[in-house]
Amino acid sequence: MTPRTPHALAAPSLAAPFTLGGLTLRNRLVATAHATAAVTDGAPTETDAAYWRRLAEGGAGMVITGGTAVAPESTLPQRYLTEAWRPEIKDAVRRRAEAITDGGAVAVAQLVHLGRETLGAGTFYAPVSAAAVRSPREATTPHPLSTEEVRGVVDAFRISAANSVQAGFHGVELHAGHGYLLAQFLSRVNNTRDDEYGDRIALPAQVIGAIRTEIGQLPIGLRVSVEPGEESGLGLDDLIELLPRLCAAAPVAYVNVTTGVRNTYVPGMATTRPPLLESVARIRSAVAVPLLVSQGFRSVADIERALDSGADLVGMARPFMADPDFARKVIAGDERSVRPCTGCNEGCRTFEPTGSCSVNPELGPPGAAARPAVPLLLTRRGARGGPVAVLGAGPAGMECAMALARSGAEVTLFDTARRSGGQACLASLAPHRSGWQKFVDYQRDQLADLGVRVRLGTSPAPDDLAAYAQIVLATGAAEASVHVPGELRTLTSTDFLSRYPDVVPEASGVAVLDDGFGWWQGISAVESALAAGAREVTVITPGTGFATGLSPENRTQLMNRLTGAPLRVVAMSTVTSTTTDGVRLRHVLDGQETHLAADVLVTVGERRPRRPDFAPAAHQTVRAIGDCVVPRRVAHAVAEGRAAAEAVAARPL
């Protein structure tokens, strides 16, 4: 095949239909492979089917389901990956496929063999690979597959693809990216074989051929990823070389190109633009089949630029988790109403027990119609209707006011601050945390569109609230000061984040006393100090390490950002006092004391609930939500805000 020339035709609209392997996609937007782990003993559950149905109904042209393994040695002990090789789970898989097709989308099942990558969870089996080359993400070298064992892998993919199509999927996608087994064979570094599979395209070509014998001309897609670092052996240049050969040897219906390996392929907030956007034209020149470009796409402008550069389809995963109506809204020209993915990598990457989304309160665990949330009922005085007052314009209060307005209630939102956003707005001041501001902007815009009366810089007195029978407190939390005796300038992390561009030039040696929980307050203080030009930053923590509270993805990407930075970590220590030129440290185990030079100390203190001191009138019902109940995460604030609105709308008590 001759690669297509980009720009030969006018760029398609994201709403334009597209023909793929004889199937018609209703638009160019693809929900790329992901999973919520709503799987029991390797079989998708009813909760899983409900998730995919809701997503498909939101308008995506094609939906690719992930987390589907092809062999027992590629599963995890928890068995929350779909076990595609087992014919006895076909009915459960059929419910998943029907949910997607009933929603109007083309349904594709992505098939994967993890190879040497255990996802950090361990397996019941020995990890395997193309050769005895250890993954930098694993502690041990994998078992190199024999020639006969590789042929067994081919058969595993064939059987799994046949089962998936027989269960109702329109086609399959082979996962040859993110450092998993097929990618290990494609890599010039990992594939050091001297048999027939030493040709890097041999295994994926054989897999494609074997699947073709089972599913005929139904679409087979291929997902590949640009892997970072010279040690990967599968950078962009490698893919540009391999893809034409592979597509000529074993034609596929489309190629899906993304980036990264485990712990980097789900980019955090620091990634603000699609990593492959500047490379689309080059990839297009090497690929003669339809091109799907994925990762980091969240805006219409970036999607249209990718299509203009030669992509046929554009893929996203987390934006569909944040707002399953993403496709419908942007096609209708209503991007403003899209609930944005922040890139926080919290709920979607925990699987406790299933994946969720910090900003989407409708995505709940198995058996729940939404994320469980119970506002704190402080008083139950009256039940008459009328306007509602929400005190606090952070994520909890704004979510509550939005939901109340949509229910038809008259609502007024108060906040003593002069700008909305609360703790989310504060968090967004740190480098690489701007995703929270995107969510604040979305909530603020929705309040304006819904006609909610917002009174900022106002502390309502009891007389101001007398007209409201229903009051919702969403007044957040405040960081407590950590008492450290001495003479050095000391700031809370809240104060420091608000002022670091002015503080650091005058105090370039920054010590950060973390609370030992390794969460974003201390990390943001570190990154803010470095961004402002600190000559040295030292983290002092009574805990065992730095950033220990983050998910593996967020921690790995953070450490990649900090490589080469003037950062020291002093673990299992605390600050006992300060001097004019530094801090005195004490080791929490042996009590040994040392001195550390610093110009300013930043302390991470406990966040404590903050509630207004007022006595409700006899006719007023008062509820509390979010951090003013107990300081937690954005996910709790948003869910309780929505739940409080529903409780108010469901009067009487």
Radius of gyration: 27 Å
What is the overall pLDDT average?
Answer: 95
- Give the overall form: globular
Uncertain residue segments: 1-9
**In what order do the strands lie side by side in the largest sheet?**
3-6-9-12-13-14-15-16
Question: How much of the polypeptide forms β-strand, as a percent range?
Answer: 15-25%
DSSP summary: helix tally: 18
| Main beta sheet | 8 strands, parallel, barrel
Tell me the number of strands. Answer: 32
Helix content: 25-40%
**Cα-to-Cα separation, first versus last residue:** 69 Å
How are the SSEs ordered, and which strands pair?
Elements: E1 18-20, E2 23-25, E3 29-34, E4 39-40, E5 43-44, H1 46-57, E6 62-65, E7 68-69, E8 82-83, H2 90-102, E9 106-111, E10 128-129, E11 143-144, H3 147-166, E12 171-176, H4 181-186, H5 202-215, E13 220-226, H6 236-249, E14 254-259, H7 280-286, E15 291-294, H8 300-308, E16 313-316, H9 318-322, H10 326-331, E17 376-379, E18 388-391, H11 395-406, E19 411-415, H12 422-427, H13 435-450, E20 453-456, H14 462-465, E21 470-473, E22 477-479, E23 490-492, H15 493-503, E24 509-513, H16 520-531, E25 536-541, H17 552-562, E26 567-571, E27 573-579, E28 582-587, E29 593-597, E30 600-603, E31 607-609, E32 621-624, H18 634-649
Parallel strand pairs: 3-6, 3-16, 6-9, 7-8, 9-12, 10-11, 12-13, 13-14, 14-15, 15-16, 18-19, 18-21, 19-20, 21-32, 23-30, 24-25, 24-30, 25-26
Antiparallel strand pairs: 1-2, 4-5, 17-32, 22-31, 27-28, 28-29
Helix pairs in contact: 1-2, 3-5, 11-13, 11-18, 15-16
Organism: Streptomyces xiangluensis
Keywords: Flavoprotein, FMN, Iron, Iron-sulfur, Metal-binding, Oxidoreductase
Domain NADH:flavin oxidoreductase/NADH oxidase N-terminal: 14-332
